[in-house]
């Protein structure tokens, strides 16, 4: 477990605080949500600029997650019997496999994959869907479609 202990990057801390902000909002804890939002902004402003991501680099990272990282995380969550973490890992792994599939499709179709269509993301589990309308229920975490939001084309 010692190798798992390391200092988090500004990008990781920003993501963590952003997730905690969302959790506090869902629990109607607006003061805490606002504070986590400030921390997320603080860390987001200090993160290192990443090189322009190419789909091959993303695919390599996804393959590493699927080949190693999820297995390690599942082992650690199982060891401490953390059911919540195990459930989140199941969702995360499913979404990561879907993202891999989208990247493979993108490699073949290029910009045609997103032409005349929309991209949707589930705010709960991260499920990504390409199509005119989101599914009525997220196939990963089963929330209704109002939790699945359109992504702006500029961000895609």
UniProtKB/TrEMBL annotation:
Single GO molecular-function term? iron ion binding
Q: Which SUPFAM superfamilies match?
A: Rubredoxin-like
Pfam families associated with the record? RUBY_RBDX
Signal peptide interval: none
Q: Where is the Rubredoxin-like domain?
A: 117-151
Q: Which InterPro entries match?
A: Rubredoxin-like_dom, RUBY_RBDX
Could you identify this protein by its name?
A: Rubredoxin-like domain-containing protein
Q: What species does this protein belong to?
A: bioreactor metagenome
Q: Recall the taxonomic lineage recorded for the source organism.
A: unclassified sequences, metagenomes, ecological metagenomes
């Amino acid at each position: 477990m010692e190798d798992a202990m390391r200092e988090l990057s500004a990008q990781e801390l920003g993501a963590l605080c952003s997730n905690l902000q969302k959790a506090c909002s869902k629990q109607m804890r607006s003061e805490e949500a606002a504070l986590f939002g400030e921390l997320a902004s603080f860390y987001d402003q200090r993160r290192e600029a990443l090189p322009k991501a190419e789909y091959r680099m993303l695919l390599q990272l996804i393959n590493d997650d699927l080949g190693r990282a999820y297995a390690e995380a599942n082992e650690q969550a199982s060891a401490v019997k953390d059911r919540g973490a195990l459930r989140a890992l199941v969702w995360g792994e499913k979404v990561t496999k879907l993202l891999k599939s989208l990247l493979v499709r993108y490699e073949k179709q290029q910009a045609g994959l997103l032409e005349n269509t929309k991209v949707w993301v589930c705010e709960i589990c991260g499920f990504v869907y390409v199509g005119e309308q989101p599914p009525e229920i997220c196939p990963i975490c089963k929330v209704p479609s109002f939790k699945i939001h359109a992504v702006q084309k500029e961000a895609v």
